[in-house]
Amino acid sequence: MMSTSFPLSRLGGLALSATLLLAALPAQAETFQVKMLNRNSTGPMVYEPEFLKVKPGDTVKFLATTSGHNAASIDGMLPAGAQPFKGKINEEIEVTFTESGLYGVKCLPHYAMGMVMLIQVGDADPSRMQVPDAVPARAKKRFAEIVTRAQASH
Asked: How many domains, in total, are found in the chain?
Protein backbone atom coordinates (compact mmCIF):
# COMPACT_ATOMS: atom_id res chain seq x y z
CA MET A 1 0.00 0.00 0.00
CA MET A 2 1.38 3.36 -0.99
CA SER A 3 0.88 6.38 1.17
CA THR A 4 1.21 10.00 0.21
CA SER A 5 1.88 12.63 2.76
CA PHE A 6 1.26 16.34 2.48
CA PRO A 7 3.01 18.66 4.83
CA LEU A 8 0.43 20.51 6.92
CA SER A 9 1.88 23.83 5.81
CA ARG A 10 1.01 22.96 2.20
CA LEU A 11 -2.62 22.18 3.14
CA GLY A 12 -2.86 25.54 4.89
CA GLY A 13 -1.56 27.24 1.77
CA LEU A 14 -4.15 25.46 -0.38
CA ALA A 15 -6.95 26.54 1.97
CA LEU A 16 -5.71 30.14 1.92
CA SER A 17 -5.52 30.08 -1.90
CA ALA A 18 -9.09 28.74 -2.14
CA THR A 19 -10.36 31.40 0.28
CA LEU A 20 -8.69 34.21 -1.68
CA LEU A 21 -10.07 32.85 -4.96
CA LEU A 22 -13.63 32.76 -3.58
CA ALA A 23 -13.30 36.28 -2.18
CA ALA A 24 -12.29 37.55 -5.63
CA LEU A 25 -15.39 36.13 -7.34
CA PRO A 26 -18.29 38.56 -7.87
CA ALA A 27 -21.23 38.30 -5.50
CA GLN A 28 -24.04 36.07 -6.75
CA ALA A 29 -26.92 37.94 -8.34
CA GLU A 30 -30.23 37.79 -6.48
CA THR A 31 -33.81 37.39 -7.68
CA PHE A 32 -36.52 39.53 -6.08
CA GLN A 33 -40.26 38.95 -6.37
CA VAL A 34 -42.86 41.67 -6.91
CA LYS A 35 -46.58 40.93 -6.65
CA MET A 36 -49.03 42.68 -8.98
CA LEU A 37 -52.14 43.28 -6.84
CA ASN A 38 -55.59 44.84 -6.96
CA ARG A 39 -55.12 46.21 -3.43
CA ASN A 40 -52.88 46.23 -0.36
CA SER A 41 -52.44 48.45 2.71
CA THR A 42 -51.19 51.38 0.60
CA GLY A 43 -54.26 51.42 -1.66
CA PRO A 44 -55.71 50.01 -4.87
CA MET A 45 -53.81 48.82 -7.96
CA VAL A 46 -50.32 48.31 -6.55
CA TYR A 47 -47.06 46.49 -6.86
CA GLU A 48 -45.78 44.90 -3.66
CA PRO A 49 -43.21 46.02 -2.84
CA GLU A 50 -43.60 49.39 -4.52
CA PHE A 51 -39.88 50.15 -4.13
CA LEU A 52 -36.87 47.89 -4.54
CA LYS A 53 -33.17 48.56 -4.18
CA VAL A 54 -31.14 46.02 -6.14
CA LYS A 55 -27.61 45.61 -7.45
CA PRO A 56 -26.64 45.59 -11.12
CA GLY A 57 -27.15 42.04 -12.39
CA ASP A 58 -30.04 41.29 -10.03
CA THR A 59 -33.35 40.04 -11.43
CA VAL A 60 -36.91 41.03 -10.54
CA LYS A 61 -39.70 38.52 -11.14
CA PHE A 62 -43.10 40.16 -11.53
CA LEU A 63 -45.76 37.76 -10.23
CA ALA A 64 -49.29 37.70 -11.70
CA THR A 65 -50.78 37.51 -8.20
CA THR A 66 -54.17 38.90 -9.23
CA SER A 67 -55.37 38.97 -12.82
CA GLY A 68 -55.48 41.97 -15.13
CA HIS A 69 -51.96 43.34 -14.56
CA ASN A 70 -48.60 43.54 -16.28
CA ALA A 71 -45.21 45.18 -15.76
CA ALA A 72 -43.64 47.55 -18.29
CA SER A 73 -40.90 50.14 -18.19
CA ILE A 74 -41.91 53.80 -18.43
CA ASP A 75 -40.52 55.85 -21.32
CA GLY A 76 -38.20 58.52 -19.94
CA MET A 77 -37.72 56.70 -16.62
CA LEU A 78 -34.84 54.39 -17.51
CA PRO A 79 -31.10 54.94 -17.09
CA ALA A 80 -28.99 55.50 -20.20
CA GLY A 81 -28.28 52.20 -21.93
CA ALA A 82 -31.09 50.30 -20.16
CA GLN A 83 -33.34 48.11 -22.26
CA PRO A 84 -37.11 48.76 -22.03
CA PHE A 85 -39.35 45.82 -21.13
CA LYS A 86 -43.07 45.03 -21.41
CA GLY A 87 -44.86 41.95 -20.11
CA LYS A 88 -48.22 40.77 -21.35
CA ILE A 89 -51.36 41.02 -19.19
CA ASN A 90 -51.45 38.19 -16.62
CA GLU A 91 -47.89 37.20 -17.54
CA GLU A 92 -45.13 36.61 -15.02
CA ILE A 93 -41.90 38.04 -16.38
CA GLU A 94 -38.34 38.26 -15.12
CA VAL A 95 -36.23 41.32 -15.83
CA THR A 96 -32.49 41.52 -15.13
CA PHE A 97 -31.34 45.04 -14.35
CA THR A 98 -27.83 45.68 -15.64
CA GLU A 99 -27.56 49.48 -15.72
CA SER A 100 -27.32 51.51 -12.51
CA GLY A 101 -30.01 54.13 -12.04
CA LEU A 102 -33.73 54.53 -11.42
CA TYR A 103 -36.38 52.53 -13.28
CA GLY A 104 -40.04 53.51 -13.39
CA VAL A 105 -42.41 50.55 -13.83
CA LYS A 106 -46.11 50.70 -14.77
CA CYS A 107 -49.10 48.44 -15.23
CA LEU A 108 -50.51 49.47 -18.61
CA PRO A 109 -54.22 48.95 -17.80
CA HIS A 110 -53.94 50.75 -14.44
CA TYR A 111 -51.28 53.38 -15.16
CA ALA A 112 -53.74 56.28 -14.99
CA MET A 113 -54.91 54.90 -11.60
CA GLY A 114 -51.33 55.20 -10.32
CA MET A 115 -50.16 51.57 -10.52
CA VAL A 116 -46.42 52.22 -10.64
CA MET A 117 -43.28 51.22 -8.77
CA LEU A 118 -39.68 52.38 -8.54
CA ILE A 119 -36.59 50.20 -8.79
CA GLN A 120 -33.26 51.63 -7.67
CA VAL A 121 -30.29 49.81 -9.19
CA GLY A 122 -27.01 50.55 -7.46
CA ASP A 123 -26.52 53.80 -5.57
CA ALA A 124 -28.84 56.09 -7.54
CA ASP A 125 -30.61 58.62 -5.30
CA PRO A 126 -34.42 58.17 -5.47
CA SER A 127 -34.96 61.82 -4.49
CA ARG A 128 -33.34 62.81 -7.81
CA MET A 129 -35.92 60.86 -9.83
CA GLN A 130 -37.28 62.84 -12.78
CA VAL A 131 -40.89 62.06 -13.68
CA PRO A 132 -41.71 62.98 -17.30
CA ASP A 133 -44.61 65.37 -17.96
CA ALA A 134 -46.50 62.63 -19.85
CA VAL A 135 -46.89 60.51 -16.68
CA PRO A 136 -50.53 60.59 -15.45
CA ALA A 137 -51.25 62.73 -12.36
CA ARG A 138 -52.09 59.77 -10.07
CA ALA A 139 -48.89 57.99 -11.11
CA LYS A 140 -46.85 61.15 -10.36
CA LYS A 141 -48.49 61.36 -6.94
CA ARG A 142 -47.75 57.66 -6.26
CA PHE A 143 -44.10 58.12 -7.28
CA ALA A 144 -43.79 61.01 -4.81
CA GLU A 145 -45.29 58.82 -2.06
CA ILE A 146 -42.96 55.92 -2.95
CA VAL A 147 -39.87 58.16 -2.75
CA THR A 148 -41.03 59.63 0.60
CA ARG A 149 -41.56 56.14 2.09
CA ALA A 150 -38.26 54.86 0.66
CA GLN A 151 -36.33 57.76 2.21
CA ALA A 152 -38.07 57.31 5.57
CA SER A 153 -37.14 53.63 5.70
CA HIS A 154 -33.43 54.20 5.06
From this structure: 1
What CATH number has the domain bearing residue 91? 2.60.40.420
- Relative to beta strand 51-54, strand 116-121 is parallel
Is 110 annotated to bind a ligand? Reply is yes
107 marked as binding residue = yes
CA terminus-to-terminus distance, the chain: 64
Domain range enclosing 89: 31-152
The one-digit pLDDT tens for each residue of the chain (154 residues) are 555 544 544 445 545 454 444 444 456 899 999 999 999 998 999 999 999 999 999 999 999 999 999 999 999 999 999 999 999 999 999 999 999 999 999 999 999 999 999 999 999 999 999 999 999 999 999 999 999 998 887 6
Is 69 marked as a binding-site residue?
A: yes
| pTM for the model | 0.82
Residue 154 annotated as lining a ligand binding site = no
